Backbone:
DNA sequence: TCTTTTCTGTTGCAAAAACAACCGATTTGT
DNA sequence: ACAAATCGGTTGTTTTTGCAACAGAAAAGA
């Protein structure tokens, strides 16, 4: 468990917390490590969570498959990010989506109650972690609103432009690498893959964008 | 200002805080009241917030109009709910949407830094407010994910069913009243009003639902 | 290395949505 | 009470999407 301290230090939850404090908090917060193979489910829709999940390696998707096999990718969790903050509240109900490892992944679970309830004794940095948690959920909130901005556009082209421009802004460059393949991007933007692929090529032919694999450039 | 204490007591931010404590915190948190006429903007996209907004009367929409006049209603703020929690973090950037009063409304602004930074002295209930804030943002997060669930459905009919069923579940009855008129519902679900109206009537003719104005019944 | 699977682009067709225009009913404001 | 504005439903046309099927390229696995 100790070996994860340098990695945890870089996560949003433990930003600004000293190494030795993280070590102390690992037991204080009842941390448990687990690895998942690509494709395995970390959580399933309908479960009741009592832990917060920190991703230390790999990649997770928050997604939902409907009865007919249509998939919606709600969000993506990258290394250092966390999941389950929104279910920390006591009466937060069942999990709305599945959480799936899209790469071989390693996560650390922390007991949610022990994070929320500031312990009296040892953990001097506990309040820092609580604040980090608050900022993390706050940031995720804004991410979700941005996503709503993308998918509420009426046409596939507009959705693509909305998503790609925001990603370009975030990466601070007109040239950008997206973390999705075509099918995943379509599932993320809630459109049909083939129609989207078609639209991307039209946009390229019109000189709006260039792309190769998941590297894009806005012109 | 004192007269708002009974109302504030019922808001998500001050749940569980005693009257006299709220009174004390009003000055501690630098509370300011303001009223808005129907249609007025409370905040505009691009602004940088430094306050949290509690709605004590009326109704707000979080929305965005694009260049061609298409409106997207991202969320709705009802009496007792708050706005701006997601912008409490120092580096949270500019406001992504407009905040508009859809009815004559009264809001109270609280200095965001004073909420986050727990004051040393008087406010015994301050930590309760911080926790309330956390739960509020947490709940909003889940609301946003639900909304993504609705609008990521592929057809207008599916969007309507998704929205109406969730609302029925929330109101715990197959008969429900929605807080939108037709245009607003269309803007909320990101579809065309006339197409949606059409679809609603088809669903009624097929015996799936009944409705009159904004009262619906699922069959 | 060879086979199998996944990924991406392409096409045609059917279904659905957006758009525009209109009308009667209801609501709002004076 | 009356005029004006808003609201909800209807229809027809155009545009866009979803869907299915296929093929070459790339990647993964044996």
Residues:
């Amino acid at each position: 468990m100790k070996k994860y301290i340098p990695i945890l230090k870089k996560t949003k939850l433990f930003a600004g917390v000293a190494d030795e404090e993280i070590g102390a908090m690992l037991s204080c917060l009842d941390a448990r490590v687990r690895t998942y193979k690509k494709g395995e489910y970390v959580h399933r829709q309908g479960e009741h969570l009592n832990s917060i999940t920190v991703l230390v390696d790999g990649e997770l998707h928050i997604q939902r498959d409907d009865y007919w096999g249509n998939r919606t990718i709600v969000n993506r969790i990258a290394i250092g990010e966390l999941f389950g903050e929104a279910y920390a509240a006591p009466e937060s109900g069942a999990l709305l989506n599945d959480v799936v490892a899209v790469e071989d992944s390693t996560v650390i679970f922390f007991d949610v109650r022990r994070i929320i309830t500031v312990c009296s004794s040892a953990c001097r940095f506990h309040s820092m972690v609580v604040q980090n948690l608050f900022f993390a959920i706050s940031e995720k909130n804004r991410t979700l609103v941005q996503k709503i901005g993308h998918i509420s556009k009426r046409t596939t082209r507009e959705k693509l432009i909305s998503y790609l421009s925001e990603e370009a802004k975030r990466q601070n460059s007109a040239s950008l690498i997206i973390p999705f393949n075509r099918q995943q991007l379509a599932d993320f933007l809630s459109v049909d893959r083939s129609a989207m692929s078609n639209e991307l090529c039209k946009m390229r032919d019109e000189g709006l964008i260039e792309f190769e694999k998941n590297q894009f450039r806005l012109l």
Observations:
- The two ends of chain B are 47 Å apart (CA to CA).
- Residues 24 and 171 of chain B are 35 Å apart (CA to CA).
- Chain B has a mean pLDDT of 92.
- Residues 154-155, 181-183, 193-194, 197-198, 200-201, 213 of chain B lie near DNA strand D (CB under 10 Å from a C1').
